[in-house]
Structures are given as C-alpha cells and as structure tokens.
Amino acid sequence: MKKIKIILIVMLQLTLGLSSCASKDDLGESELDITTPELTDLDVWIRDNYTFDYNIEVLYRWNENAVDRNRYLFPPTAEKVQPALAAIKKIWIDTYTEVGGEDFIKKIAPREVLLVGGINLNPSGTITLGVAEGGKRITFFNTDLVDLKDKASLVRFVSTMQHEYAHILNQTVPFDEEEFQAITPFNYTAQWFNESIEQANELGYITDYARANVSEDFAEMVNAMLSNSADEYNAILTGIQDRVVAREVAAAVNSLPADATPETIQAVTDAVTLTASNEAQIAINAIRTKEGLVAEYFKTNFDLDIYQLQEIAARNTLEVLNN
Amino acid sequence: MDIKIIENYFKNIALLILLTTVFTACQDEIEVESKFSESAAVRITNNETEIKELLKSSPEGWKTTYFTDNELLGGYTFLFDFEDDKNVRMTSDFDDDFTVATSEYQIVYGSTSKLSFATRNEIHKLSDSDNFPTGDLRGEGYKGDFEFLYYGQEGDDLIFRTNRDFIELRFTKATVDDWTEIEESKIMREKLVSDATTSVYKSLAISDGTTETRYDLSYNTATLFANAKRLNEEGKFSELNFGVAGTKEGLIADPAIETNGVSFKDFVFDSDLSQFVATVDGQTASIGFFDEPAFLTDDVADIGVDLGTFVYALSEGNNALTSPGFDALIDQIETNAGTRFPFETLALFSSPDGSDVELLLLMGGYGFRYTFTSEIKDNKYFLTYVGPRDGNGAFLEAAVLPFIEMFAGPNGLYYTNEGSFNAIKDDGSVTSYSNISGAFVSADSPNIRFYGYWF
Fold first, then answer.
1. Which residues of B339-357 are buried (b: 16+ CB within 10 A; e: fewer)?
2. Which of B69, B119, B143 is the best residue to mutate to test the A interface, defined by the most A CB atoms within 10 Å of its own CB?
3. Predicted-assembly ipTM surpassing the 0.95 threshold
C-alpha cells in the first residue's frame, strides 16, 4: 500500500513538473522553411500524373543520398524527364490499371521512382539498367539517352519497371520458389554474365540474367512476357529451336567427307534436325512451364490475366512509339 | 540497521533525487549563453539565401577551372551564370559544344552548404561513367563532381571544395568576353596536339638565363595529362607530372611545376616561338614543340653492330611513334611514283663499318635499291647518298628523292631503341614480337619519325 502511495506521489510530482514546463514557452512560428517550393511545369505534371494519383514520388533533381556514390552518375536533363515518365506511365501503369482496375497500382507500387541521366557503367564493363531497393524505390538509368521512338530503346528502358515491378508483386505475395526452381535447377550462377542470352535460352532460361537466381528468373519471365507482344515472345522461343537445329546441322554436315553424296547430306540433315529439335524442345518446354507458373501466380494472387497484360502492354508500347 | 530500514532509506533518497531533478529542470535562472543570435534552422536558411545572393551578384556570372584529378587528368574551364534562385546558364570548353544551356541548381545543406547542379548541363559531362578518356577510367568518366561545398569568400572570389574528392575550386567573376571567347581556351590547349607539320619532340625547358634543363614531354591529348622526363646528371631519369587546362592566353599546369625553388603554373602562348612560356623570378619554363630531343641516348651505337636490318612495313600496322609527317612523306613519293608503285616496305641494311648501307624500297611488288655510306657521330646516325644500286633504283630515283634526302639529311637522324616490337592493326589489336624495335627521326625535319623492327 505504501509503495502505491509513493508511486502516486512521484507521478503527481512528475505531472506537475512537466506541465509547468509546457506552459512556459510559446513555440511560435516554425523556424524551418516550410513554404512550398516553387514548382516547375514539370513538377506540376509529376504531381498530377504520379504523386496525387498513385502516391509515387518522382526524384529527378540530384540527391547524392539516393544513388551509389562510388558510381559516376548524373541527373537527367530536365526536358527529358516528362517524356520518359509518360512512356513509363503508359506502358506500365496504364496497362496494369486497364487489366487490374483503377486501384491496382495505387495499392501496390514503389513509393519512389528515381531517374538518373546516364547509364550506370560498372568498371568491369557490365551495365546496370535499373535498381529496385526493397520495393520502395526503383531507379531508372539512361533517362537522357533513351530514344522513345526506337522500339528496342524504349522497351529496354521500360523493361526496368516490368522487371522490378515483378519483384514488388513477389514481395507482396511470394511465389512458390521451390516449384519454380525445380524446373531448371542446375544452371543458376552468379557468373551469369559470362555466357550469352542464346546459351541461357538453350539451358531453359529466358535471358542470361534469369540465371542469376530463382527470383530474377521469375522477374525476367514477367519482363519478357510484358516487354514483347505474344508473337514476339513466341518467336523468341521458336528461335531457340531454329538456332540449335541450324548450328547442329551445319556442324554435322561440315564433318562429312568432301565427297558425300546429296543423299547422305540429306539423311544426316534429317537425323540431326530430329535430335537437335528434341534437345531444343526440352529448353523450350522448361520456359513454357515457367510461363505457366507465372500466369497462374498472376491469376491466383492478383486476378490478373498476364496474357491480357501482354496484349495491352504491346498496344501501349506502339502508342508511345507512334505518338 | 536492519534490511528494511536500509531499503526505505534508499527509496527516500531516490525519491528526493527524482523530485529535485524534475523541479530544477524547469528553473529558468539557469541559462546557457547562446553563441548565435538566431537558431540553427534560421541560420541554415539564411546561409542558403546568402549563397544564392552571392552567386547571383556577379553580373556576368562566374568562371572556374576544374581539375578533377591532377594526378591523372587535365582541367576544363566552366562558366556559370546564376539567373535566379533556381536556374543557371552554363557552358564550358570541355568539347566542341559551346552552346549555353540552362539547368537547375540548388543550395543543399550537407556537411556544409553545398552548391548542387541538380539537373543535367555541361558540368555533368565530367561525371558520365560511359564517357571516359582512357580504358583505365572505364566506369569513372572524367572523375568529375557537380556538387561543391561552399567554403567562403576570398576577396571577390568564391571558394568551394568538391563534394566527392574535396578538391578546391575557385569561382572568379566572369566577363562578357569569357562567354564569347570560351572556345579560345580549347584552341589554346590543342596547340599541344601533334600534326603532320609539328616536331615529334615535345619538351618542357626550364632556364635560369644561363643554363637550360630540358625534359622530354609526353602529353596525352585525351586525358590532358603530361609527363616530363629527363636524364639527370647521375644518368637517372627524373620526372614531373601535371595536368593541363587551356586558358584564353595559354595554359595552366596543375599541379604547378616545381623546380629550383620556383613554381610555374600559368603559361602564356608565345606565337613567335610557338611555345607556352611562364616566367617566375627570372626563371623561364617553356612547353611546346622543339626541334631536337630533350636528351640523346647512345642507342645509335648499336646500329651495324647488334642491329643489322631495320624494316618499316605498312602491313605491320601503325604505331603512334610513326608520325603524321612521315605518313605525308610516303604520300608524297607515292604521288610522284604513280599508281603502279604503292609504297609497301622500306628496309635499311646497315653495315658494321658504314661503308655500304643499302636502302630497299618495296613499292607495287618491285624492289628499288639505293646505296649510302654511314657514320655515327654525336649520338646521331649520318647517311651520305651514293647512288642507285640497280636499274630499278635509277628508274624511280627522282620519284623517291624526298625519301633519299630525308635519310641523307645534313644533320643526320636521331635514333632511339624502343624495346620489343609492337604491331598495331587497324582493328586496334596489338601483336608483340621479340624483335628489337627502334625509331628514327630526321634532325632536319623533326616532324618525320618512323618506327620499325630489326632483324
């Protein structure tokens, strides 16, 4: 009982002590500069198109804390910012919005988009196209150099978002990594850049970078499906078969004696075409299986038809190119 | 005292301390003397305003010469005109684009107030990972920065330090002429670029009026960086390294060239001498093209002894040691000889006693031979022309005469041993051979140098 009394007295005293301080000073006006910074037309456009609607802040003025200081990077030219952002919005935001509804991107999105002017060339010679930091911020390099009227350039630029957004979706709802990894379990490598995209394709990976690990594999699959139209995507897969067959047939024919008859050449060609096709088909099947898991993931978890996303992304890409 | 009493005793003491703390915390008679009349927040804001006012105060803006790394690279001149609190106009002599472009700047509070060029303009060309002057700087560009920490004023100048490398930058007030003549400093620094008419010998010469010390200067036109080397009295090489920036009047060397207790930094171009000259305390430093090498080695003594036949072959690719002046000479004899005889190879067969030296020119698949005698004197190789060696030689003698005269120049040829032979093909690939290589320079026409191998 005595204890409680003491505690009560102490609390009372503390309350007195603190409240006596509070009433003493008037804090007055803020001494920090809290005026709204002067907004340029670009800033207003960004607020209208990204910040207010999607709660995404766009950083384009230089902020050394937002980038790796060990790299030699620079901010974009102000005039290049709006066209680049408009292209990203059209191909990424508008596509997901059309399929997933008005609120889809509002609910799941990076909170910051950072634009850097030049490419991020590493001293080793590799180029970092984009960076996603914990799903909070996505960094686009090359803002100054992207040619929005050149399909390859545009697709490469926006593919940063398609790839990184796949990671953000994965951070919201994880995919079954074990099941995905089991498709091509043996050729993931940290040295993915030592071999070509073509070599990666023949091992059952959609790109060279997909070999880095299973989550990059997943993101690269999403990227490949949304950065290409259905026809273009299918052409990548059939291209694997054509390439493998052409190479194997050429090798087999070259190893024949110089006086081989046309019949022999034809027979060898047919035989090798068959075995090479089967070999390539294994790789293509692996990619198709991954594609199936990606489609199922989008449907089950977000009620999104990725093939519809693919169709609309392709349409929106063309609109950007032709506008 | 039993345990209970001790416990209560401590409880009361604790309570007393607590209460004392609470009450004394509010005692308003305890005041800390403020060193500033305003709060930190207000001072930061004022500081930002003050720097912006300073930046805007120069009517024609500011000029600075920025050496991003004076151990590797030269410097560039930048002009900044801060139009208002947000926008800055800018140009530089970095490349041939002298247009004045507008971009945004900010004053940011970091470790101190920092001028940050927030959107892209000329200054950012130094910080492009993908635009590097040499392969060693891949990913680092020109190692430039575009955020400068403000360090105050010195007279009319503003002093900054770069954010990344802490290099001091001095902004001086620019003039109208600085803006209209920005390309002048680039033209100046390019006077150090070799062409077909310039001597292959670049030197730094330092003179106190009586004696002259000459350094052989190798200058990289991509990095704007110079290495000066001389053979000192002990027979060892001593070196000076510095970056170069152009100015309207000449050059700036950074770090300054320190020698004999004198420091040479600002050079003025002397058009009569075609050299950049700095004079400090009666001593003179000159940078430019000279007619003779800074020092002569005795490499030439090996010719005819250890070195037999010298070959220069177009098929072996090019090498920076073969000068545009030599290429021009080949063009000239090809023009003289006509299209049937395109130049292919020259071979010089030396002889131990110098009595019979043969020059063989292979042109259009034919061989043309000429005879000389040779002498080694004053560390130079002297050839005296005797005449054509055969009918072919006689046939083309008039056409190749400029070549023969070059070999037989009255002042001889300088020769240097250049180590093992490197053949550089058009695609940039280099093949190294174990053959010894060497280079000859005409002492009469020092714009002519050619590099080949010995067997």
1. eebebebbbbbbeeebeeb
2. B119
3. no
